[in-house]
Amino acid sequence: MNTITVTPLSLEAGAAHLEKLLRENTSSLPGTLRDKLAAAQGPDTLAALFPGESLHEEWKYTPLSILRTPWQLGQAVLSEEPSLPSLPGVSPHPIRPEAVESSPALESLPAPITPWERLILSGATRYAAATLPKDGFYTLAVSQPTPQQAAPTFYALHVPSGVQAEVLLNTPTHPEALLLLQLHIALEAGARLTFYHAAPEGVQGSVLFLFSTAIEREAHLSFYSFPSRYRWIRTESRVLLTGPGAEGLLYGAHTPHENELCDTAIRISHLAPHTHSNQLFRSIAFKGGRRVFLGRIHVAREGQKTNAYQSHKAILWENGAEVYSRPQLEIFADDVRCTHGVTTGFLQGEMLFYLRSRGIPDAAARALIAEGFLMEALESVPTEALRTYARHNLGLPL
Fold first, then answer.
1. If both were cysteines, with which of 94, 107, 199, 323 could 228 make a disulfide (CB 3.0 to 4.6 Å apart)?
2. Any idea what DSSP says for residue 162?
3. Beta strands 220-225 and 178-187: pairing type?
4. Total structural domains in the chain?
5. More confident residue, 75 or 223
């Protein structure tokens, strides 16, 4: 049996190595994206994530252990069969993105503002786009099965005016691989999209998921981050509400276990009047697990009559669990309704006492409380089979 030994790099050396690979892989960048990238080039690099001896403010509580691996570039795999349990009553249509030089979705792609955005956009090994032509349920399965390889990938989806669709993104990842996925979705006026991000059971590898969307007049997006377990995952969401009546709703339930990191960074920008957003997340961190949540609501001067809400509640299931929450508001309009709330604590004894006093064993009582707490964020999932899948995949110990 052959044994492969990989010597870990320092953060600085790992960042320089990965950045060099991505910058050298710009030959396949489509013209439309090349123009956007050229207009947004900045002096900062991955080294800017840890100035001095500390992390950048936006990454303050997020260990960058992924940079210690001497990655090589690999190719993401697009599968027509998601590696998830069958979903009764659902007839999915696989999305088949094609190589892109131009696309309606690319017109609304926001300019890159972070080193990761610029590097993934410039160094992706796959650029593809697709249009959802009609109402229905669609699947997009992206994976990186090869160990010691990083797969930078860019996809764009276009939802035409009047289309009502659901999309399930499935990201199974080899435990020793890194998926660098950037996905942009453009919703035309009146379009409605329900988007799910999920992974199969078991611990997956590492994923950096950059998600952006531009939502036009009276269009609606619901984004559900299903409970999945990764060694390391950071999901960055940029939601642009660009037209009056646009709506962006984000939900998630997460359960990081020992040696697992789950990081969520959200920026919702209200750029037009009468827009609505919601961030509703629930988390349970187990011993040795780390959960990070950064939620930002930005209201531009044009965003009068904005209605925005943000909530992240977390339970520290046992000693040794870590949760960091940072709600943020940036409001430049004077006629808005913006609220946020963050709570973190241990399981309350009164809840357990109530159930135990009715004859429910301690382990079962804890599981019931945990399930009810997490499913609060997922109870509005419109497809019953996916609600059942999410409940099954909570990963709660009995």
1. 199
2. T
3. unpaired
4. 1
5. 223
